[in-house]
Amino acid sequence: MFEIHCPYCDEKRPEIEFAYAGEAHIVRPNAQDQGEMSDADWSQYMFIRDNVRGEHCERWWHQHGCNMFFNAVRHTVTDKFVMTYKMGKSRPTAKQIADAKK
Amino acid sequence: MLFDQAIDIPETLKGDAVSVTLMEERARYNLRIKSTDLTEFKKLTGLKLPRKINTSSAAKDVTCLCVGPDEWFVIAEAKSKAKLDKLLAKASNKFVCSVTDISHRNVGFEITGAKASRLINVGCPLDMAIEAFPVGKVTRTIFESAAILLRRTGEESFQIECWRSFGPYLRDFFVRASRDF
Ligand SMILES: [Zn+2]
Description:
The complex is a heterodimer of chains A (102) and B (181). Helices cover 23% and strands 32% of the residues of chain A. With 102 residues, chain A is of the alpha+beta class. Chain A has one domain (3-101): Folate-binding fold. In chain A, the strands form two sheets. A four-stranded antiparallel beta sheet of chain A has the order 3-4-5-6. In chain A, a hairpin with a 7-residue loop joins strand 4 and strand 5 (69-75). Chain B starts with 18 loop residues before the first strand and ends with a helix. Chain B folds into two domains: 11-23 and 105-178, Probable tRNA modification gtpase trme, domain 1 (Gyrase A, domain 2); 26-101, 2-Layer Sandwich (Alpha-Beta Plaits), CATH 3.30.70.1520. The longest helix of chain B is centred in the middle third of the chain and has 14 residues, at 81-94. The chains are: A alpha+beta (102), B alpha+beta (181). The structure holds zinc ion. Zinc ion (ZN) binds at residues 6, 8-9, 62, 65-66, 68 of chain A.
């Protein structure tokens, strides 16, 4: 078992408390655009993911803890969590990710 | 409804190193409110909700536990229920918030004794050292795949709350786990 740092609880907690919630930073089209979108664009938003091999920005849910969603950068091969950050913060830059590894 | 009608737990577990007691009936509420309203909330109800996540504040017969940035549990003696019902109803009229009475949804256990933290670590991987989990700290977590609310009430005493339907399972687990001590 490994531990994940929850940015709301601000401590490392066992992974069994968490649930994965898909790729992060995917912007939902606003209601008006949704009505005018083509099926191809909608399915692009709905189903198409980058499926990164390497460091991946993704959502996690501290389901059995503070009940908050947050974002994390995780390496999809090694499963190593590089950093976690609160919802609403923008995608970390390459420099921020490099700093977090130090 | 009588407290023990819905849960088949005959007696308390008494051991040299650890004891588990099913708690008496309690008044329990789940409260969602904006943290910016806490000062006004205290003025109206007199309840001091802790601001820091995973901490609790105990005043007379009422304990307030912060489990998320905008989520609290209020747990009190059963005799305070009528008073708290009124107070929280008043608050729900004034604030954008949600108050849910969960008095009968949960059951509580008191775990005491020199090996109380060892018993918790049988089913829960959190660090129970006093530095990492000081008195008054509280959190939701998982105990042997059951969702629980865990609070340290003293150096060698804990309170565990779970859904009523998990009660017999946890109680049974405590009994079997404590045979090792
Ligand atoms: Zn958390």
